[in-house]
Amino acid sequence: MSAEKVHIFDTTLRDGEQVPGCKLNKNEKIEVALKLEELGVDIIEAGFPVSSPGDFESVSELSKIIKNATVCGLTRAVENDIKVAGEALIHAVRPRIHTGIGTSDSHILHKFKSTQDKVLERAVAAVKYAKTFVEDVEFYAEDAGRTGDEFLARICEAVVKAGATVLNIPDTTGYCLPEEYAAKIGYLRDNVNGIHKAILSTHCHNDLGMATANSIAGVQFGARQIECTINGVGERAGNTSLEEVVMIINQRFKGQYTTGINTKMLSYMSGLVSERMGMIVQPNKAIVGANAFAHSSGIHQDGVIKERSTYEIMDPLDVGVDHSSIVLTARSGRAAIAYRAKQIGYDLTKEELDIAYDHFLDLADKLKQVEDKDLEQLLKSKIYKIAS
Ligand code: KIV
Ligand code: ZN
């Protein structure tokens, strides 16, 4: 049986760009979008065209230059939003309008001061209107994570009947537990008439640190599209991290699910987005953090030097990092010193290593990390007696 495709919907340029201070100008958006296309994402959410003339222009420009990926524009369930998005997407080879409305009680009662029936009517009207501009219409049920399953199924069924091709089930507030989110997706898969005509999509926020787990749980229960961003950027605590879900699918679901992502570009993409958005990546970030393939304790270093897979569950080359690193700290052991000394040109005998190690520990207790230049200095002054 061949692996089932999970579509990767990248929203770095829309949900990601909503982060305060992360706004990109048109040229930066073009640069990132072209690289996203090369990375192999299936859909690029390019922006929210009605929100500003600049965003309209960016979506319109990306529609002209992106040829392989679907280009998507966000709207509210508001006629003018949809009309403007339709205009911005006019040149796209594969245009998609992403329209929707809040469906939880708190959205319906507090935001809209409305009723479920009226919200359902607006959702259907929005999808029908969007269909007059493009064939591919994705519907989002904002705050689906806190929406009762029965109403969610009713609104999903109605919008599929109106022509929605994708059903986005956002955990907008990052509140769901993985089993709750999985059950919600499973309920929709099993209870929405006509569900086979649409793709179920996850869109999980990270307020409790569960965005990645929830997205994968959604896939296991029937979702075939994941909405995510590079480095997990997005509103508040962020969105699902693209690099994490893609590598989970690659490492844990081989043969069952597949994506079209060229994983060797992941590290590069992380650096590009971090740089352009001015948002640093935490060093311990999974997959793309500076320490994701760095080993610093003696026990781990010894294991990894003998056999990489002892402490690495994936090959750094697969995500575009040329090698794992052995970081020298006061917790490092002899194996790491010998290894790093060899890397900088010193093949130490056992006696030399014993001497180097004693001096190394004194030095390492004073420094946070011993760099190559510190090690070289130590070897030259304590063993080789060559003036530096
Ligand atoms: O988090 C959310 O609900 C969203 C929607 C607008 C799709 O970003
Ligand atoms: Zn979102």
Automatic annotation (TrEMBL):
Keywords: Amino-acid biosynthesis, Branched-chain amino acid biosynthesis, Leucine biosynthesis, Manganese, Transferase
GO terms, molecular function: 2-isopropylmalate synthase activity
Sequence intervals crossing the membrane: none
Top-tier EC class: transferase
Its EC number(s): 2.3.3.13
PROSITE patterns in UniProt: AIPM_HOMOCIT_SYNTH_1, AIPM_HOMOCIT_SYNTH_2, PYR_CT
Associated pathway: Amino-acid biosynthesis; L-leucine biosynthesis; L-leucine from 3-methyl-2-oxobutanoate: step 1/4
Pfam families: HCS_D2 (PF22617), HMGL-like (PF00682)
Segments forming domain Pyruvate carboxyltransferase: 6-267
One of the protein's GO biological processes: L-leucine biosynthetic process
Family indicated by similarity: Belongs to the alpha-IPM synthase/homocitrate synthase family. LeuA type 1 subfamily.
Protein name: 2-isopropylmalate synthase
Organism: Portibacter lacus
